[in-house]
Amino acid sequence: MDTSSPYALIFACLLWAMMFDAGTCNFNNRCREKDTQVLLNFKTGIMDPSGILSSWSNQQNCCEWRGVTCDRINSRVTHLSLPCSTSIPNYMDKEDKSHCLTGTFSLSLLMELEFLSYLDLRNNDFLAIQFDSVHNHNYYYNLSVSNRPRQFLNSSTLRHLDLSFNENLVINSLQFLFRMSSLENLYISGVDLHMETNWLQLVTMLPSLSVLQMSYCQLKDLSPSLQHANFTALKILDLSGNKFHSELPKWLFNLSCGVSSVSIGLCSLTGQLPKELLNLRHLEELILLHNDLNGPIPDWIGELDHLQYLMLDENMFSGIIPKSLGNLSSLTHLSLGSNKFTGVVSERNFAKMSKLKSLDIQSSPPLIFDFDSHWIPPFQLEELWLSFSGPHLPAWLYTQRSIQSLSIYGSWFQAPDKFWNFVSRVPELTLEDNSIVGNLSNILLNSTVIRLSSNRLKGSLPRLSPNVAVVRLSNNSLSGSISPLLCDRKMLNWKSNLVYLDISLNHLSGGLTSCWEKWKSLIHVNLGSNNLTGKIPPSMGLLSNLTSLHLHENKLYGEIPPSLQNCHSLLIFNVRENNFTGNIPNWIPHAAKALQLRSNHFSGSIPAQICQMSSLFILDIADNTISGHIPTCLCNITALNNVSHREFSTTLLYNFSNRSLYFFEESLKLVTKGLALEYENNLQFMNLIDMSSNNLSGTIPLQMFSLFGLASLNLSHNKLTGKLPDEIGNMKNLESLDFSVNQFSGEIPEALSKLSFLGFLNLSFNSFTGKIPSGTQLQGFDAISYIGNSDLCGPPLTKICFKSSDDKSRDTKPIDENGDKSEFFSWFHTGLESGFVAGFLGVFCAILLNRKWREA
Ligand SMILES: *[C@@H]1O[C@H](CO)[C@@H](O)[C@H](O)[C@H]1NC(C)=O
Ligand SMILES: *[C@@H]1O[C@H](CO)[C@@H](O)[C@H](O)[C@H]1NC(C)=O
Ligand SMILES: *[C@@H]1O[C@H](CO)[C@@H](O)[C@H](O)[C@H]1NC(C)=O
Ligand SMILES: *[C@@H]1O[C@H](CO)[C@@H](O)[C@H](O)[C@H]1NC(C)=O
Ligand SMILES: *[C@@H]1O[C@H](CO)[C@@H](O)[C@H](O)[C@H]1NC(C)=O
Ligand SMILES: *[C@@H]1O[C@H](CO)[C@@H](O)[C@H](O)[C@H]1NC(C)=O
Ligand SMILES: *[C@@H]1O[C@H](CO)[C@@H](O)[C@H](O)[C@H]1NC(C)=O
Ligand SMILES: *[C@@H]1O[C@H](CO)[C@@H](O)[C@H](O)[C@H]1NC(C)=O
Ligand SMILES: *[C@@H]1O[C@H](CO)[C@@H](O)[C@H](O)[C@H]1NC(C)=O
Ligand SMILES: *[C@@H]1O[C@H](CO)[C@@H](O)[C@H](O)[C@H]1NC(C)=O
Ligand SMILES: *[C@@H]1O[C@H](CO)[C@@H](O)[C@H](O)[C@H]1NC(C)=O
Ligand SMILES: *[C@@H]1O[C@H](CO)[C@@H](O)[C@H](O)[C@H]1NC(C)=O
């Protein structure tokens, strides 16, 4: 699996949770009054913003209500199934659950449905569960049960309980499980159980428990030394995504031999595979991927002959891949990639695997392949992750006629025509970061997903068949114009399905063509870092679904055509480093997230329409000839004035026929802390305004200092005037502030020292006066941050302040200690260097932290 697999896994789970739809069965029998009352009370207690329960009313037979199923004979409620279905957004924004059920629900109330055997509230947004007899319900019902205090009844009927993926739900205690002695299936994944330290003991009390799914529950303790756990009926155990930091637990090997599936992936497990695993004779699935397990894959693994899934990828296993694996004739999925295996792989490792469908033996450095060139494998694979050393593909690859997904990584090989013919039958192709040598001129690509970035491909752009949805060909040596791909005459009669096109970082030249009409399905277009010239053709305005357009680092010129207004979905617009002229477009959709016009010849003033883009978090119009004032309305940009985490991301999702989710990070090159860096994974955490190197004049509007979310503000190299107000101290998230080379005056406000994250400050070459606030972190910056303000004094500047005795204020008269220019410039250069290093480290840490944050 590729490096995105942890996310892929999490989102595959979410996908599964989202795609599920409530099925309801109705019978023509009359619901009991008591059940009706219990359900109505349940409804009263919770919040139902979108009227999911609108059919629940006294007028109707409760057996016909949405989500309710009754027993045919006694007409009692047996099933309550109300999962929420949500759709997958284009960008990995926070899932929209505003229509799902929420609030607090009373489980003790539902337990009064004496015949309830199936309860499914999955993927809603419940915040808490009420278990006891607390009388804070603002409802009454006057049946016999109401006369005694409501208590949690022992349910002898509930067999299936699914509360999974209520992500905001915190359950402090699982004690209530005690009362559910018949429970067979417990699904509680994605619910926060970090307070429940006794979870294992509690679930083992359920004598009939057969399926336990507790993945991503923030569990911490796996009780690794506990010898015995009383799961007598357990068949399926899923504890993935909890950070246990321990070895595989002893109790696991002492489970009844009926266990068929064990899934403890992404759990930071340590240690080796213990031989006791052989106790689990009937194991069909062993999923331990993405842990820190080490040591060899033991020979005895070949004795687990019921195994169908063996997923050990992304661990630290070492040694050779044992031949005994070849004995696992039931195996359908074998995943060993991203470990530290060494040695040779040959046909003997797969001798009896006639059912194998999915194989991952990707590693870096690649394993040595020693396959007989005439070997015909006993399997027909559907998915293959491969890496190998050597100039030729293994011959047996061409015997595989059913491959749906092929991924090759870290390998070097020549791609002959035979190879391109072969892969045209493979719908998902991931061949990035290899050194594939090939010429794509006149090649027709036919895969749905084509990822070929960072190889050594040359020639002109390939042609695409109507099947193609995703094309990544970035960072190769492709040349010529973009018309072979876009203007292929053979495609005149069919409709394109292309949504994602990235051909950046090549040597493409010529114009943007007028062939865009054929490609209306496009969502993401990246033509950046080529040698393209000419104007943006009006036909690009036909791309009504376009969300991101990257045209940076080319030689494009002219005005941005008004037809682009028809790209109503545009969120990221990046034309950095071209030769565009005219005004800043004022039609950019209100939902836009990033606008990058840096280093062009845009002129005129900043249009007030920018303030309506409430989701904008990157506004980079630096290095143009923009004039006029900074608009006061910038404070209307809520994404910048909100301190809380943004609820949207810059990761584009592509859902491949409900089977695989692809993640594409948007990326932008931004300048912050004096450094230009490509922001990709961490882009969504950057809030930036860069208006530097323009002709802006006037003062900074006070409202701008209410952009509390801003991390980087650069207004340098303009003609701005006025004093800095104390309000600047409110911009608590600022990490980088550059006001250099303007005409700001007055004292540096002491409030500036309240900005505790500030790692880069440049106030140089203005007309600031007085003393740099002493005793604050502001003196921790190098002199470079303050030079060129002739009336500014005090450390770190070498000018000392002369405090006149009759002067009460900080107003001081600077004395130029030594006017030596050469010393001044040596300051300048040392300051510059250390600033760069610090800036780089800062960004690097931010990247690491964000990774952690996101994995958590
Ligand atoms: C139910 O009981 C409550 C309180 O005991 C009472 O106020 C209410 O009138 C009763 N409702 C009915 C319909 O009997
Ligand atoms: C439910 O069962 C528990 C333990 O089995 C017992 O202590 C409790 O009294 C029972 N409660 C009811 C209401 O029957
Ligand atoms: C299994 O549990 C029993 C106690 O019930 C214990 O004596 C035995 O050592 C355990 N076996 C393993 C392999 O942990
Ligand atoms: C294990 O379960 C059995 C049967 O339900 C029960 O008799 C026994 O007391 C349980 N043991 C523990 C340690 O919970
Ligand atoms: C495969 O299984 C057979 C019979 O069970 C055994 O004799 C042989 O040694 C096994 N092969 C390997 C490589 O473990
Ligand atoms: C192109 O892809 C389609 C669908 O995946 C497949 O049916 C067809 O055979 C492929 N064409 C070629 C020439 O491989
Ligand atoms: C481009 O590919 C080369 C190797 O072919 C790699 O070293 C480099 O990092 C890639 N650049 C980008 C921006 O992906
Ligand atoms: C690629 O192949 C075409 C013929 O298909 C040839 O004209 C062209 O010169 C080749 N390009 C390179 C860079 O080798
Ligand atoms: C644009 O997106 C919508 C929603 O995803 C889709 O229904 C529509 O077909 C797309 N338009 C084109 C031209 O592909
Ligand atoms: C870009 O195109 C110009 C002609 O338009 C050409 O002179 C130049 O060499 C090209 N540069 C690259 C890097 O291909
Ligand atoms: C950019 O456009 C200006 C005129 O608007 C022209 O003088 C200049 O040569 C162009 N620069 C490039 C790199 O094309
Ligand atoms: C900014 O917000 C204020 C108050 O919400 C509103 O009156 C004003 O019209 C907005 N300005 C712009 C340009 O959107």
UniProtKB/TrEMBL annotation:
GO terms for cellular component: plasma membrane. Its main location: membrane. Residues 34-71 form the Leucine-rich repeat-containing N-terminal plant-type domain. It is found in: Cell membrane. The chain crosses the membrane at residues 824-849. Keywords: Cell membrane, Glycoprotein, Kinase, Leucine-rich repeat, Membrane, Receptor, Repeat, Signal, Transferase, Transmembrane, Transmembrane helix. It comes from the Eukaryota. InterPro entries: Leu-rich_rpt, Leu-rich_rpt_typical-subtyp, LRR_dom_sf, LRR_N_plant-typ, RLP23-like. Residues 1-25 form the signal peptide. It is a single-pass type I membrane protein. SUPFAM superfamilies: L domain-like, RNI-like. GO terms for molecular function: kinase activity. Pfam families: LRR_1, LRR_8, LRRNT_2. Belongs to the RLP family. PANTHER family: LRR RECEPTOR-LIKE KINASE, LRR RECEPTOR-LIKE KINASE FAMILY PROTEIN. This is LRR receptor-like serine/threonine-protein kinase FLS2. The lineage of its organism: Eukaryota, Viridiplantae, Streptophyta, Embryophyta, Tracheophyta.
